[in-house]
Amino acid sequence: QVQLVESGGGLVQAGDSLRLSCVASHRTFSSDAMAWLRQVPGKEREFVSIISWKGGITYYADSVKGRFTISRDNAKNMVYLQMNSLKPEDTAVYYCAARTTVGGNYDSDRTYKYWGQGTQVTVSS
Questions:
Q1: 3-state SS assignment for residue 111
Q2: What pLDDT digit, counting tens, does each position of 61-89 carry?
Q3: Which of 66, 69, 93, 106 could be disulfide-bonded to 118 (CB atoms 3.0-4.6 Å)?
């Protein structure tokens, strides 16, 4: 059974940092690209960041570039999102997701094959 489980969300103040973690159980984890997307109620899910299977390629949404860093540890089946200088507009449910490659329409949530249940991040002003 495929499972992606996120953790690390919480309530913080603007300017603070958080690190999200995602543990994956699917057998193709070490060859999959892994990503973080987020969603605010009433809005579509939004791409945040993606990392290639070896970690050598990363992409970020313009809104988080320079503040967020994605990383992975294939030996531990883990993906991380380090979020610094958080802003109230970063408030959302953050999802970990897997897709076969890092290329193509990685900003489209329809291209992801596995999803976690999400973790809430709330940034107060």
A1: helix
A2: 999 999 999 999 999 999 999 999 999 99
A3: 93
